[in-house]
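Comment thread on ticket #2218

A.B. wrote:
> Attaching the input chain for the structure job we discussed in standup.
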Amino acid sequence: MEVGRGCPLDCYFCSSKIINAGRVEYREANVFVEEAQKAFLNSENSKVVISFNHDNFLSNKRKFKEFASYKLENNYFFPYVCEGRIDALDFEMIDLLYETNCRSIFFGIESGSEKIQKLSRKNLRIGTDIFEKVKYMRQKGIVVELNFLVGFLEETTSDLMQTIELAGKLSSIDYFSAPNHSLLSPEPGAYITSVTSQVDYILRKDSVFYKDLINSSMPIQSYNSKFFNHLYMIKNKNYDIEVMGVTASKYFEFLKFFHFTTKMITEIWNKTYTEIFEGILENEVGGYISVVIKNMKDSLTVLQEEIITYELQRYWSITGRTDEQPFMYEYPIQMIYFELLETEQLFYDLQKYLPKKTKVRMA
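C.D. wrote:
> Ran it. Output below, let me know if you need it in another format.
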């Protein structure tokens, strides 16, 4: 549901500013809240969630408070998701997000490098403030979606590793704060597109969307890149964007599916997130897990090793690469795993669990 439009900011990778000529507009709170309530009540799906569409939904504190007040005064409890800049958010607003039944918020962090933040004009200050806000939102039960960009024109390997480290540390907060990523693409109307050209663009042939279009006989390369801009990445003079782009995709997938494995790698094996990235660069995910278990074997309990194996099994199942053979576990691994998802602290009290052989088949 559109609740406003326009963005006054000038991030060089984004076209939002030109869509409304830099003007920021907000619909009146009473109007869109009534529309949302009506849509919620008329929906046949009891699990419907309203999605508020506005890049700057949280940027105007006064407007946000008008929305929160109207929704609370009328006892409208429809769930919703929204997006915004994390630096526009304070703890009072997080409380209001919780009270008004916000389920999830999307934030673009983009880079862990202060240099890239400035050059890209995102100008987000990287510090403990981000961690504290994400932690507080998670304590309130709000899912936090964080997105990073890989492939800035000026980005060096060092800048990229700062992003890798920041994303990893944020993912460690809990299972529901795993970050996502995108590859920098030639967004129509964005500054980045005006200083690059077709010869700088590389088709992402690993993309499922590319494969679907090819299978439908769509002649993608005969069209201007602006029609399929998200299927392109931009050459980087400092590193091979094709190699780093594929590795970044595997890394962020790893953070998503191997939450507790990542904790063990960083807290028991004392590896950095950069070292995890480098390990994934050299191996497929399954191969890297084998390296992890081999090198950590003497440091892991049976249960810890089984948690790693279970995450690998879940990964295979969810991504369609499952082995139909059942796995034998010494512990009731599924019960334990889902308890860990509910309460992260149980991860540090694994000795409370007693062995009880279970067989798990994911297929």
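A.B. wrote:
> Thanks. Noting for the ticket: Residues 258-360 form one domain.
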